[in-house]
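TA notes, week 10

Several of you asked for a full example with nothing omitted. So below is the full record: structure tokens for the whole chain, then the designed sequence directly under it. When grading your own attempts, check the secondary structure regions first.
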């Protein structure tokens, strides 16, 4: 896999040529910091045993060689030779064009609209409980599309906690470990009425926002009440294509969100409606008309255009060509990436019953579980 290694710039870097002719350059300080020898990393968990301050600022490479497909690097002034796995270096190379247009998405993400059709990530509850392969297949779909559905689950109260147990832990909030979604008298939240709800992300007034939401159906004989999901990333892409300046305004300026519906609770946050990482990666959408507070962080000169972009984003989200709709039966549930996918509900009548339960969890647990399953074949091969 690794054919050749050459010292560059008096030892400040090395150039590697991999099988097939691909070349990558690595700085000496980067290589030393990312060594996996027993004095740099703990064998059991891979955590670093040293700080950057323990590595000499004048660290450089005095010799390199390729032996048995591994890279051997001798560092000075330590006078130590450290071995590197060629595949790891190839996977973690950074010598590439890092330029991206603002709003780019990671390779493992696929944006979608109503044309997603029957490609909804769908799995049987018992199957994902019993099979790591089935669980991985479903979690892979959730990572790719930002939501997924489970069928064939139990219909006892609190069954949704078993969904969270598949990959992580429940994130408890002021609503408790889980909350009831059914009509209430004098509700503390409009979700507890029969009203239709615009597509939204949940709890935008929290910092950090819950990154996953699970909704689980226990009863559903009422007329209406269908669930809808909308890909906020695709909505942001559409806005960027139509109105680059409006997209820029919604990413550069913070909106404000607030919730004070329960005694002793007053939650506030200040975040952009469309959030980008420093390198322009699209990493989050916060959109919730019910919880929007006064926007005060946009300059006067930009406010009219900001509101025009805000309005257009809402119109895109409301476009039926963006939505995937389904009705949950008892024992069915769905999960959404609350940093990306907006969910909604059509209004329903007082006849019959509609009882869902909801809870929050964290995406890092889901991604960790998926990554651990995906790494098992490689670890077994090694």
């Amino acid at each position: 896999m690794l054919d050749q290694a050459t010292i560059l710039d008096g030892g400040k870097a090395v150039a590697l040529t991999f099988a097939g002719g691909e070349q990558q350059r690595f700085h000496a300080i980067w290589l030393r910091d990312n060594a996996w020898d027993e004095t740099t990393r703990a064998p059991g968990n891979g955590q670093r045993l040293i700080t950057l301050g323990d590595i000499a600022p004048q660290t450089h490479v005095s010799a390199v060689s390729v032996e048995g497909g591994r890279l051997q690097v001798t560092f000075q002034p330590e006078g130590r030779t450290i071995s590197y796995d060629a595949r790891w270096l190839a996977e973690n190379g950074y010598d590439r064009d890092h330029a991206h247009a603002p709003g780019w998405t990671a390779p493992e993400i696929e944006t979608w609209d109503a044309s997603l059709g029957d490609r909804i990530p769908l799995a049987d509850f018992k199957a994902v409980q019993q099979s790591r392969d089935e669980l991985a297949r479903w979690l892979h779909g959730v990572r790719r599309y930002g939501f997924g559905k489970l069928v064939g689950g139990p219909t006892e109260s609190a069954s949704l906690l078993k969904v969270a147990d598949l990959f992580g832990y429940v994130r408890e909030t002021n609503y408790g470990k889980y909350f009831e979604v059914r009509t209430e008298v004098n509700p503390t939240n409009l979700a507890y009425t029969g009203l239709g709800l615009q597509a939204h992300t949940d709890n935008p007034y929290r910092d950090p926002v819950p990154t996953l939401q699970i909704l689980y159906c226990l009863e559903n004989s009422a007329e209406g009440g269908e669930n809808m999901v909308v890909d906020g990333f695709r909505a942001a892409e559409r806005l960027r294509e139509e109105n680059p300046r409006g997209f820029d305004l919604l990413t550069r300026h913070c909106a404000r969100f607030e919730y004070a519906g329960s005694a002793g609770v007053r939650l506030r946050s200040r975040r952009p409606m469309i959030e980008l990482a420093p390198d322009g990666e699209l990493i989050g959408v916060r959109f919730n008309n019910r919880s929007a507070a006064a926007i005060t962080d946009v300059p006067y000169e930009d406010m009219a255009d900001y509101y025009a972009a805000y309005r257009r984003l809402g119109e895109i989200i409301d476009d039926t060509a963006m939505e995937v709709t389904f009705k949950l039966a008892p024992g069915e549930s769905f999960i959404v990436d609350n940093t990306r996918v907006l969910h909604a509900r059509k209004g329903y009548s007082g006849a019959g019953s509609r009882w869902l339960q909801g809870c929050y969890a964290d995406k890092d647990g889901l991604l960790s579980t998926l990554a651990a399953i995906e790494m098992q074949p490689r670890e077994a091969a090694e």
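Residues 300-318 form the longest helix (19 residues). Use that as a sanity check on your answer.
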